[in-house]
Amino acid sequence: MQKLKILIIGHARHGKDTSAEIIKELFDYSFESSSIAAARIFLYDKLKDKYGYGNFIECFEDRVNRRTEWYDEIKAFNSEDPSKLAKEILKESDMYVGMRSNTEIINCVDTGVFNLVIGIYDYRKPLESSDSFDINLWEREDIIIPNSQGIEELRNRLKKCKPLFIQ
Q1: Which of 99, 102, 137, 155 sits at a 20 to 30 Å CA gap from 81?
Q2: Domain of residue 112, residue span
Q3: Is residue 88 one of the residues assigned to a domain?
Q4: Domain contains 70
Q5: What is the pLDDT averaged over residues 117-125?
Q6: Comparing C-alpha atoms, which of 45, 43, 42, 19 is closest to residue 31?
Q7: Domain for residue 23, yes or no?
Q8: What is the CATH number of the domain that holds 133?
Q9: Number of independent structural domains in the chain
C-alpha cells in the first residue's frame, strides 16, 4: 500500500486534529499539526524570550492567544519557499494538519507536495479572521467532510473515504 501525502485544512476548532487522529487510527497514517511543528522547528526559539516560554509545549499552548502572530511568522518562515514547512512536516509524517495560508496551499498543490486535500467544516462554529486564515475552504480541497454531528458521525464519514486512503 502506498500512502498519500495529505493536507487537512479548516478553521480553528472545526475538527482537523480529531479527523487526523481518526485517519491515523483507521488507516495507519501519521500526522503532525502545523502548530506543533512550527513550535518545534522554529517558533519556540524565536518567541521564547519575548514571552518567557520555558519549553516548546508552553509556546504551542499559547498559540490560541497569538494566532495572527503565528500566521505571520509561519508566512515569513515560508517566504522563499511557500512549501517549506509542509516539506519539513512530510519528512516524518503522512499528513500535515492546519495550513492557514492561501499562498502556501496554492504552491503545495501546484508542485505536488500533497496528493489529497481534505477540508473539515463545522457550520456551528465561527470562521477565523482572514488575519490568521486566508484560504477559501471551498476552493482548494479535494473533499470537504462536514463535522457537525459528533465524533461518531465524523468517524463514519471518514470510514466512507477508505478508497481514498487505501491505494
Answers
A1: 137
A2: 6-33+82-165
A3: yes
A4: no
A5: 95
A6: 19
A7: yes
A8: 3.40.50.300
A9: 1
SS (H, E, C) the chain: CCCCCEEEECCCCCCHHHHHHHHHHHHCCCEEEHHHHHHHHHHHHHHHHHHCCCCHHHHHHCHHHCHHHHHHHHHHHCCCCCCHHHHHHHCCCCEEECCCCHHHHHHHHHCCCCCEEEEEECCCCCCCCCCCCCCCHHHHCCEEEECCCCHHHHHHHHHCCHHHHCC
Q: What is each CA distance from 137 to 35, 80, 102, in whole angstroms?
A: 19, 24, 10
- Give the pLDDT confidence of 31-86 residue by residue, as tens digits: 988 899 999 999 999 999 999 999 989 999 999 899 899 999 999 999 999 999 99
pLDDT in tens, 85-109: 999 999 999 999 999 999 999 999 9
Contacts of 72 (CB under 8 A, 6+ apart): none
Residue 71 inside a domain? The answer is no
Q: How far apart are the first and last CA of the chain?
A: 6
Q: Could you tell me how far CA 74 lies from the centroid of its own chain?
A: 12
